[in-house]
Every structure is written in structure tokens, then in C-alpha cells.
Design goal:
The protein is α+β, with helices and mostly antiparallel strands and about 300 residues long. It is built from six helices and ten strands; from the N terminus they run αβαβββββββααααββ. The strands form three sheets. A four-stranded antiparallel sheet has the order 1-6-7-5. A four-stranded antiparallel sheet has the order 2-3-4-8. Strand 2 and strand 3 form a beta hairpin. It is globular and about 55 Å long. The structure holds a DNA duplex (16 and 16 nucleotides).
Length: about 300
DNA sequence: AGTCGAGCCTGCTGGC
DNA sequence: TGCCAGCAGGCTCGAC
């Protein structure tokens, strides 16, 4: 489920069900996901009121009264389903990104019962996701966030920032942008899409973003706004999906229809004037989609 | 310190 | 139809 736009879409979908409400019961059905749940997880949540829902990179932040935050990561396959108050209301899957084929109840690992009557279920077949409870004052320094880089939609994400991080780096651009310490929130899809838009080869060295004096190159200047664009467009597409959810059950996210390279191996490059074909290569064990002709 | 590969899990798809 | 290999949106760890 989770790159930044999907997590942001999930956050917006959970907000009406959770913000301002209190956990009346928490049904934790196994001792661990990727990591063990914190001690007495369900008991510690019961009776707590949620002041706000936030997001940091790909993490959901459930701010609790009493200076603690429930930190949730969706891993690869984590999904939430919201049963709004009222028996006849259809379930909502905020941020559903591919065609909804339903979820196997065997993987419903956590069920939150809210004081407003909403029931929020966390389902995660691969269990790469996790939940943690962190005191507010430790949030920045906790193991999840201590090494996390800047938000790509925040003011700190600039060409100069990327250049500083990229000086002398011999790793390729793909791996550099996937590294959450450099910029936090990009995943395989949006790195592919952003590099395509920027006409940059994913196989270039990351150091191509920095000049010898450490200042950003034109490539870095080009890349930064395009990363923002692709993320903002994806969030907008997810938001539209949410409005659809309000009126119908099932349903689709649809930013995948806007992919220009991801998952399009052997299709024609859509860049005007380019006669190239989208190729798939493997970098750090992950698929990279790119046009070898117009991405240089 | 930076880089790379393996591993964590399950489910789905495509080829034989 | 059944089986098996390969693949999947993330992240951590260990080895070099």
C-alpha cells in the first residue's frame, strides 16, 4: 500500500473515523507484525482519545491525548478498512491503490473500536507493517525517525539539500532516492516516475546531482520539482478516490492510470518525439522501469 | 562510511 | 488442472 501518496490518502480516509474519537476497545490478534507490539498495546490504547492524525514520510501518526503517539507503518501489504458508524454503511478502504479484491479476514491483525461507532480494521498478509507507541518527546529521536530524511513536500527538500547528500556518492540515482535518509517517502513507483519525468537515467551515479563545489547541478534543480509534482498528483488522485468511496463500496484508486513508466515494460515511451520503448532492469533487487532512449 | 545482497512473509500471476 | 518460479508499493541486518 505504501508510498507517501498512499499513506497520505489513508491518513485522510482514517481521519473522519478516528480524529477526536476515543478507543473503546482494541482487538490485537497476534503478538507481532514485523516487530512485536509494544507491551500491553491494546490496554494502553483503550480509553485514549485521538487528538489528530498526522503523517511523517510513510508513517501514520495517531496523536493521543496524554503526550503519546501511535506510530503505524503499512509495510508492503498493510490496509485499513473503515466500517463507519451505522449498520448499513458500506466499508471504506482508504487509499486502495489497486483493484479491490477484498481482504482475507485471517490477516485482520488489529481491530480498533471507536467511541463514535466506527470500526477500523488493519489487515496485512505479509506482516511487514508495524505499530508502536512513542512518547511525544521521543518522537524525533525514536528508532523510526532518527535517521529519516526530509519530507519531499516540505520546504527543506531542495536541490541544494539533494546535492549536499549526493556529494561523492557512488550509488546509483535509483538507490539514492529510495534511501529514506536522503528524502523520506519515495518508493519504487514514484522514483521510477520522477526520474522518467526528469529524463534522468536511474543508473546514473547519485553524485551527478552535485557539482564539484557541492552546489546542485541543473539535474538536481530539474528533479526536485518533478518529484513534488508526481507526489502531489498522486495524492490528488487518491483524494478523488476517497470521494468515490463515500458513495460506493468496492472501488479503485486510479493514479496507476497516470503511470508513464512503472509496470509498462515493452510499451512505447510516451515522451513526444521519443521512439524508445520502456525497459525493465533490476537495481538493488527491485524492478526499475525506464526509457533507455530519453532518460540519460 | 558506503554499498550490496539476503531476508522477513504471503498471495498472485504466468508458463509449462 | 496443478505445480513452480518469479514477482510484489518496504525496511533491516550483516558482510565486505
Amino acid at each position: 500500500m505504501p508510498e507517501l501518496p498512499e499513506v497520505e490518502t489513508v491518513r485522510r480516509g482514517l481521519e473522519p473515523a478516528m480524529a477526536g474519537a476515543t478507543f473503546t476497545a482494541v482487538d490485537q490478534r497476534r503478538p507481532d507484525l514485523r516487530f512485536a507490539f509494544p507491551t500491553s498495546f491494546a490496554e494502553r490504547l483503550r480509553g485514549r482519545r485521538i487528538s489528530a492524525l498526522g503523517r511523517r514520510a510513510k508513517y501514520l501518526l495517531v496523536r493521543l491525548d496524554g503526550d503519546e503517539t501511535l506510530v503505524m507503518h503499512l509495510g508492503m501489504s498493510g490496509r485499513f478498512t473503515v466500517h463507519p458508524p451505522g449498520a448499513e454503511a458500506p466499508p471504506i478502504r482508504p487509499g486502495e491503490f489497486v483493484q479491490d479484491t477484498g481482504t482475507n479476514p485471517a490477516h485482520d491483525h488489529v481491530v480498533f473500536h471507536m467511541s463514535n461507532g466506527a470500526i477500523v480494521t488493519y489487515n496485512d498478509p505479509r506482516r511487514f507493517g508495524y505499530m508502536d507507541l512513542i512518547p511525544e518527546q521521543d518522537l524525533e529521536t525514536c528508532r523510526h525517525f532518527a535517521d529519516l530524511g526530509v519530507e519531499p513536500l516540505g520546504n527543506a527538500f531542495t536541490a541544494a539539500h539533494l546535492a549536499r547528500r549526493a556529494i561523492g556518492r557512488t550509488t546509483d540515482l535509483k538507490a539514492f532516492l529510495l534511501d529514506q535518509r536522503n528524502v523520506a517517502g519515495l518508493g519504487n513507483i514514484y522514483v521510477c516516475e520522477a526520474l522518467y519525468r526528469a529524463r534522468l537515467s536511474p543508473q546514473r551515479l547519485a553524485s551527478c546531482l552535485a557539482r564539484a563545489d557541492g552546489k546542485p547541478t541543473v539535474r538536481a534543480e530539474r528533479l526536485v520539482p518533478l518529484i513534488r509534482d508526481v507526489l502531489n498528483e498522486a495524492i490528488a488522485a487518491g483524494g478523488s478516490t476517497l470521494r468515490d468511496y463515500a458513495h460506493a463500496d468496492g472501488s479503485l484508486g486510479y493514479f496507476q492510470h497516470a503511470f508513464k513508466v512503472y509496470g509498462r515494460e515493452n510499451e512505447a515511451c510516451v515522451t513526444p518525439g521519443c521512439t524508445g520503448k520502456i525497459g525493465r532492469i533490476v537495481q538493488s533487487g527491485r524492478s526499475t522501469f525506464h526509457c533507455g532512449r530519453c532518460q540519460r
